[in-house]
Inverse folding.
């Protein structure tokens, strides 16, 4: 791909932060990187051809068409062993740790293919997550195993109109009723909500206790009476989240995950892992942008010479290259720290904060280097520009991440 991703060899990296020193990229992860690059080029590249003309013309693609193409890719990824490789071996995964997953997400995003991400190759919200390790044996058969095989799809329903960054302030309620629970409330910004077969739902079961014993995790089948998709929400990027409404939706005790009242811990386990994955994706997107910027600066001429000869253009490219290198080191190091058992809160927040802020700056510089061509849909830069802006919002805004890091430093 001609990318700035490090070569596929065991590497020693000396970087700062997260209390780490030298990081070795194990040979098995280097080999995985090569295999994943090959899969993405072969399978995703071929699938992208079916939507390439529409992407070039409009910068987007019909969402139902996009999702259908993703589903076909998931089947191929399951067969190749990539889709659920982040899950433990005892549930059918490969037990790949945070460092391996960060690199995998980086490789996928660095391809620049629109179809490469959002659960096409590696499971996202629609597939198996570490939250589901809290399922009991019967629940694993009913929910986890089909998700591992990409036979069913899920969504993660935590956010609400009045509970975004303050995720513990949810108002969706689940009340005891006989031998089950009745759920009422509304969730929004739910990625894949309109397509999911099962909803990973978080509801208040004791308002006074909040996250400390008052939020419960439920697996709610989408076809449950009282569950409906009430709105599709259009965003700046390619995501089309949904609003889900629950009106007297009844579920049984067998759909409670883990201990009643302590579901928020499951959510945070997934969110912390997801933040590192997002950091890896941001690194990959910045790689693609920086590669394109560099190549364009070499090829595009103005005033009789390549624009890369001009200092202001050089500054955009060089600053992006340097920031990318720094952020990559930090993401790798933070992922490695989590694999070594360190508190994931600080590491995950640092990785996402640094990488998503960085890729936003790189995307903006890329638009400047490409000039008028940068804001045209044909070259794909503006599409990536739109997508990376959202990365500083979902799974924890930059402001919330800074607050989290401040807490780990004993400042609040």
């Amino acid at each position: 791909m001609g990318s700035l991703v490090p070569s596929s060899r065991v590497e020693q990296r000396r970087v700062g932060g997260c209390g780490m020193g030298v990081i070795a990229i194990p040979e098995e992860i280097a080999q995985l990187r090569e295999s994943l690059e090959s899969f993405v080029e072969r399978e995703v590249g071929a699938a992208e051809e079916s939507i390439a003309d529409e992407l070039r013309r409009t910068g987007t693609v019909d969402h139902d068409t996009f999702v259908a193409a993703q589903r076909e890719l998931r089947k191929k990824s399951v067969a190749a062993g990539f889709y659920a490789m982040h899950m433990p071996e005892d549930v059918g995964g490969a037990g790949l740790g945070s460092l391996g997953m960060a690199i995998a997400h980086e490789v996928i995003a660095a391809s620049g293919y629109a179809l490469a991400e959002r659960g096409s190759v590696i499971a996202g919200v629609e597939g198996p997550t570490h939250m589901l390790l809290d399922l009991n044996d019967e629940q694993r058969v009913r929910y986890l195993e089909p998700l591992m095989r990409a036979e069913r799809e899920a969504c993660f329903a935590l956010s609400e109109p009045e509970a975004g960054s303050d995720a513990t302030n949810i108002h969706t309620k689940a009340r005891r009723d006989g031998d089950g629970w009745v759920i009422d409330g509304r969730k929004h910004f739910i990625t894949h909500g309109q397509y999911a077969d099962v909803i990973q739902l978080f509801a208040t079961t004791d308002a006074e206790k909040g996250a400390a014993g008052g939020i419960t995790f439920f697996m709610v089948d989408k076809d449950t009476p009282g569950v409906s998709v009430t709105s599709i929400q259009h965003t700046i990027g390619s995501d089309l989240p949904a609003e889900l409404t629950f009106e007297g939706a009844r579920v049984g005790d067998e759909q409670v995950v883990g201990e009643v009242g302590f579901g928020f811990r499951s959510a945070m386990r997934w969110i912390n892992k997801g933040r590192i994955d997002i950091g890896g994706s941001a690194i990959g997107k910045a790689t693609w942008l920086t590669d394109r910027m560099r190549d364009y600066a070499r090829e595009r001429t103005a005033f009789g010479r390549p624009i890369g000869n001009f200092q202001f253009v050089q500054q955009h490219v060089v600053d992006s290259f340097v920031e990318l290198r720094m952020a990559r080191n930090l993401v790798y190091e933070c992922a490695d720290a989590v694999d070594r058992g360190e508190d994931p809160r600080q590491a995950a927040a640092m990785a996402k904060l640094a990488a998503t802020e960085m890729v936003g700056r790189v995307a903006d510089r890329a638009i400047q280097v490409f000039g008028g061509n940068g804001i045209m849909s044909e070259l794909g830069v503006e599409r990536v520009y739109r997508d990376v802006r959202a990365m500083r919002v979902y799974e924890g805004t930059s402001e919330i991440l800074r607050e989290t890091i401040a807490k780990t430093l004993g400042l609040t």
